Amino acid sequence: MSQPRREPEAGVSLIEVLVSLAIFALIGVAGLAVLNTVARTGARTDGRLERLADIDRTFVILRRDLLQMTGASTQLQDNALQFARPIDEGIVIVTYIARDGVFVRRVARAASPDVDQRLLENVQSAQWRTMDAAGRWHDSWPPTAAETIPAAHAAELSVTLRADPPETLVRLFALPAGQGR
Description:
Blueprint: H1 14-67, E1 75-77, E2 80-87, E3 90-99, E4 102-108, E5 115-121, E6 123-131, E7 137-138, E8 154-161, E9 167-174
Antiparallel strand pairs: 1-2, 2-3, 3-4, 4-5, 6-7, 6-8, 8-9
């Protein structure tokens, strides 16, 4: 049997309408899935970029301070690095330490209260080491066996961040006494 011919003015059948609606629904669901994936990826990327910016800012501040420190003023005890740094009004004592999950820069001026600057959050630990002129690393400075207080030539900071798994960042800084070596 042959099917009866439809008149051109008759329009579309119900089956054709349902098929077209199903196709548009599939395209819509696929589009929403792609959009959702892009949005989640963007949110994760933004969080990581903020964290990287915080880490970079911390190391820029630290490098700036270390390049302007006075030579023999370095002290390293209990994983706290302390040194003197000249400013226009005299000298300030700068201390870097990890405490209560935060990497902190403390600035102490004579006749002023100490000012703490929170540099990096979610820090599990921070370890400092300093290098002498002979290239030996020390966990405390000045070395206990030294007759005179030598100038440290380099400082190494190892920061472990709270993450899953924990991430460790290691930076080596040439100090003013070690420049040109």
